[in-house]
TrEMBL record:
Name of protein: FAS1 domain-containing protein
Species whose genome carries this gene: Cynara cardunculus var. scolymus
Keyword Ribosomal protein: no
Membrane topology classification: Lipid-anchor; GPI-anchor
Top-level division of the source organism's lineage: Eukaryota
Length: 442
């Protein structure tokens, strides 16, 4: 009997461990709000501005919502850029449910919002003041000086304890100056890139005419990955002057896509990103790797970490990146199937891979379109020698190649995904439990 009880305890503990591993779940704000028609406009704006992706990627968060009629009264005439700023102020980076709000006990709590993380918040506009007003009332307002606590707690809408809380307030929190100066208009992409420290890239897209393509696409949605000036001076960068004008244009188009992808959405991107260079002749795709808040773009030849956000204004997003992205369609060449013959006694005239025609340039100059330089062929295989030296790897950059499985060991967290239980672990535990139960039955 004692042995049977011990066995049952083992089963219970094992099942509890499996549950703990497999049921750590995320949240999806869009799904949560879809159950409440009175917040349908608020929910729609979260999707249009991509704030939903940022909310879903965070583990502990509170969303302050207001109903459709309130939103229509205060924000219906504003651009999506302004709406995104206002709504991001209503996303608190802490967990507040009704019980926690009651514990303020006549005091005040200042909490950080999603807007503060953008780096665009001026002064205290990225913080929210939560104050117990006594008599069962809780007020919300901007922490910026001179702001009023004129938004009141209405009700608790939905909670997943210590993960996400959705709370309704009666009025939006709008810091002074947000509605009048929140969104830039008529963005000059070239000037913005120069200010961000991407002057070389700005000159290249201007000289080649790619800037005009960017400007045309930006009206409906554009994301630009702009290499810093230091990226064009990095050792190991191929000589971009060896590219033809058409190839250089393709490489510059490879640094942008025709979608608005802010940083929060970039962190949760699972699928390859189709760039403006994507055609039937080549994929020209980028993949994304994340490690915590760090985001890295992988081209297939090299990779580049996102350094900062130069602009996030719906529908335009511009990132400053660490390295020049090299597409496989231009910088990976297959060796000739039949090597060129050469006398065994003569010194091979073909250059070795280490001295390939694609030389290293410290800083590229714009291509002269009237005299394009053809992309260099792959070096011929030198004749076999008694003790040949180990050839250098014919790679356009010195950076290590990306892992075969970009998602491995990156710590990437996707919205709604729980911690996955390894198949082998589940199989072993299931088999063990089945054997234990069989022994009890016997």
């Amino acid at each position: 009997m004692c042995a049977t009880m011990d066995t049952l305890r083992i089963i219970i503990v094992t099942l509890a461990l499996m549950a703990a591993v497999s049921t750590v779940a995320g949240h999806n704000i869009t799904d949560i709000l879809s159950e409440y028609p009175e917040y349908s406009v608020f929910n729609s704006y979260l999707s249009q501005t991509k704030l939903a992706d940022e909310i879903n990627s965070r583990q502990t968060i509170t969303v302050l919502v207001f109903n459709n009629s309130v939103l229509a009264k205060f924000l219906s005439n504003d651009t999506l850029s302004v709406v995104k700023i206002v709504l991001s102020i209503h996303v608190l980076l802490d967990y507040f449910d009704m019980q926690k709000l009651k514990t303020i006990g006549g005091g005040t709590v200042i909490t950080t919002t999603l807007y503060q993380t953008t780096g665009n918040a001026i002064g205290s506009t990225g913080f929210v003041n939560i104050t117990d007003l006594n008599g069962g009332k809780v007020g919300f307002g901007s922490a910026a000086p001179g702001s009023k606590l004129d938004s009141l707690f209405i009700k608790s809408v939905k909670q997943i304890p210590y993960n996400i809380s959705v709370v309704e307030i009666d009025l939006p929190i709008i810091p002074l100056g947000i509605l009048t100066g929140g969104a830039p208009s008529g963005v000059n992409i070239s000037s913005l890139l120069e200010t961000a420290g991407c002057k070389t890239f700005a000159k290249l897209i201007t000289d080649t005419g790619v800037l005009k393509i960017y400007e045309t696409v930006s009206t409906k949605g554009l994301t630009v990955f702009a290499p810093s000036d230091a990226a064009f001076k990095a050792g190991g960068l191929p000589n971009l002057n060896k590219l033809t004008n058409a190839e250089l244009v393709s490489m510059l188009l490879f640094h942008a896509c025709s979608n608005y992808i802010p940083r929060g959405s970039l962190k949760t991107e699972k699928n390859p990103i189709h760039t403006l260079a994507t055609t039937t002749a080549g994929k020209f795709e980028l993949t994304v790797q994340t490690n915590g808040d760090s985001v890295t773009l992988v081209s297939g030849v090299d990779s580049s970490r996102v350094e900062s956000t130069a602009l996030d204004s719906v529908p335009l997003s511009i990132f400053k990146i660490q390295n020049v992205l090299l597409p496989t369609e231009l910088f990976t060449k297959s060796p000739p199937s039949v090597p060129a013959p050469a006398p065994e006694t003569s010194t091979p005239s073909a250059p070795t891979p280490a001295s390939a025609p694609r030389t290293i340039a410290s800083s590229p100059a714009p291509v002269n379109a009237t005299s394009p330089v053809r992309s260099p062929p792959s070096p011929s295989t030198p004749p076999t020698a008694p003790t040949p030296p180990t050839p250098s790897i014919s790679s356009p950059i010195d950076a290590p190649a990306p892992a075969e499985n970009p998602a491995a060991d990156t710590g990437k967290s996707n919205a709604g995904d729980g911690i996955k239980v390894p198949g082998l672990f589940v199989a072993l535990v299931t088999a063990s439990i089945s054997g234990i139960i069989s022994s009890i039955a016997a």
